[in-house]
Design brief:
The protein is mainly alpha-helical and about 425 residues long. The chain has 23 helices and four strands.
Length: about 425
């Protein structure tokens, strides 16, 4: 922070060119370390051992560069050489490539002095997306932006905490992520949500500084659930959809009450997120099932995503017909009631899947489609085209029962759900050509 505040030296110019800002660092430190319990007099402040090490490394950097003095650039190089230091971690959490710092220092040393601050070029990425670090370093930039917007909403209401209600407002304000689009399809509006917050809680008595705003216990729980949702879906980073799914799972915060007052149940929220994810699968999500969902109906996309979620929850590193069956059973109503009407249940199917394919010992990093599932989906697509039907949950179900050797079909058979019964039930749902 001292290097950034100095404002004119090589280090300040380097950090400015990399988009590092003082307010951003202060907020990150608040989240990573917090504040001390009491003020400390200057005479009691000493150099921490990592700081002493950074100074030693700064002297060494000056010597290596043939400089007779230690400048701000050498201090910065000393900091980044100590990769485990808090400062280096702060830069990393702010999206700064530590290796790039060294290259930028060398480049800046060879350039004429330029202005920093208001007259400098804008940072390469918006400050609002980098306000949260430490525990949030697994968060996608959109999710970090939501947290920053939630904090902004708390400030707007003079609240000294970020509650689930502020998180909901942040999700609505972000506008472009999966969560915002899912909420839009459900009819949620920012101004109506704000009015509900004002009615339920009201405004605080006095303005609160950003440094004094903390996460409420419920919001911390939502964030934990969001991380778990990302894991279950096999996504490597926490995004806006996972925050919304976390809100829905927590189910007791003010945000849930606001949504319910707007006629939006938590079940509707989850289905809207899954459907929106199916329409636009996240490009950075891992593990990946290895197939695009763009050429299938919304019900089929939901089934495939729910199947992937089941596979990840069971710690399987493959996506097979057994997971497809679970996805079909989780769709509400289950494959247009075909499976439930025939007596199949999700609980029994899950138990039978785990008997046939025991749970793995570690979380999968990549999901691979089994050859049998690949053949099944190809059959379902061909059948839909040939019969003039949509490639939907029903055609996936027909594909499932068309392969009696698959685990999914065998589990259905043990429940008395035969291929013939499924075909007859689907025929009744399909209008004549």
């Amino acid at each position: 922070m001292g290097l950034v505040r100095e404002g004119e030296g090589v280090a300040a110019r380097v950090l400015d060119s990399l988009g590092v800002e003082l307010s951003q660092l202060r907020r990150a430190i608040e989240f990573m370390i917090g504040r001390g319990d009491a003020t400390t007099s200057p005479s009691e402040i000493t150099l921490a051992p990592p700081m002493k090490k950074a100074v030693e490394l700064a002297i060494d950097e000056a010597r290596k560069l043939g400089h007779s003095h230690v400048g701000t650039e050498h201090l910065l190089l000393g900091i980044v050489r100590s990769s485990e230091s808090t400062a280096a971690k702060l830069l990393g959490s702010a999206g700064v490539d530590i290796e790039k710092v060294r290259h930028q220092v060398i480049a800046t040393l060879g350039q004429p002095h330029r202005e920093v601050g208001a007259s400098a070029p804008a940072p390469t990425s918006p400050q609002s997306t980098r306000n949260f670090a430490g525990p949030f370093d697994r968060f996608h930039e959109r999710a970090k932006r939501v947290l920053a917007l939630a904090q902004d909403e708390a400030i707007r209401f003079n609240h000294n905490y970020i509650g689930t209600e502020h998180l909901l407002l942040g999700l609505l304000r972000e506008q472009e992520g999966v969560a915002a689009r899912a909420l839009q399809t459900l009819g949620a509006e920012l101004e109506k949500a704000r009015q509900a917050v004002s009615f339920i809680i009201g405004r605080g008595d006095a303005a609160t500084a950003p440094s004094e705003i903390t996460l409420s216990p419920r919001t911390k729980k939502v964030i934990e659930l969001a991380i778990d949702e990302a894991r279950k879906l096999g996504h490597g980073r926490v995004n806006t959809e996972h925050l919304l799914l976390g809100l829905a799972r927590e189910g007791e915060g003010i945000a849930s009450g606001i949504l319910e007052s707007l006629g939006i149940t938590m079940a509707k929220v989850r289905h809207a997120v899954i459907e929106t994810l199916g329409a636009t699968p996240p490009a950075s999500s891992t593990p990946q099932a290895g197939r695009e969902y763009g050429n299938v109906s919304s019900s089929a996309r939901q089934v495939l995503l729910l199947a992937q979620e089941e596979a990840v929850a069971m710690r399987h590193n493959h996506l097979g017909t057994e997971h497809l069956l679970l996805g079909l059973l989780r769709l509400e109503p289950a494959s247009n009631s075909v499976l439930t009407d025939l007596g199949a249940t999700l609980e029994r199917a899950r138990a039978d899947v785990l008997k046939a394919v025991p749970a793995g010992t570690s979380e999968p990093t990549v999901l691979t489609w089994t050859p049998r599932l690949q053949s099944l989906t190809t059959y379902a697509k061909g059948f839909a085209d040939g019969a003039g039907m949509r490639y939907s949950a029903e055609t996936l179900l027909l594909g499932l029962v068309s392969d009696p050797a698959g685990v999914g079909a065998q589990i259905l058979d043990t429940m008395g759900v035969t291929a013939q019964k499924v075909r007859e039930a689907v025929d009744k749902l399909t209008p004549p050509g």
